[in-house]
Design brief:
With 82 residues, the chain is mainly β. The chain has a single domain, classed as ATP Synthase, domain 1. It is built from no helices and eight strands. Strands 1, 2, 3, 4, 5, 6, 7 and 8 form an eight-stranded mixed sheet that branches.
């Protein structure tokens, strides 16, 4: 899966990942390979993700956001942040 995190100024992250955990407006949710398409708003919080080069026991990487939205489509997770 590919995780893209974009701000109005630049690309903050472009990485192949195995799992992503996001701060959704209705609560945290996890995206895995093959997830159904969706669009959701995001609240202030932390995006947690595991790069493909990691093993399952490795701690997840973190990225703090102030809010935004996410689109999941065809194993590409595009996050647009404020």
């Amino acid at each position: 899966m590919r995780l893209l995190v974009l701000s109005p100024e630049r690309t903050l992250l472009d990485e192949e990942v195995s799992v992503v955990d996001l701060p959704g407006a209705m609560g945290r949710f996890t995206v895995l390979r093959g997830h159904d398409n969706l669009i959701s708003t995001l609240t202030e919080g932390t995006i947690l993700y595991l790069p493909m080069t990691s093993v399952a026991d490795d701690p997840k990487e973190m990225l703090e956001i102030e809010g935004g939205f996410v689109e999941v489509r065809n194993d590409v997770i595009t996050v647009c942040v404020d």
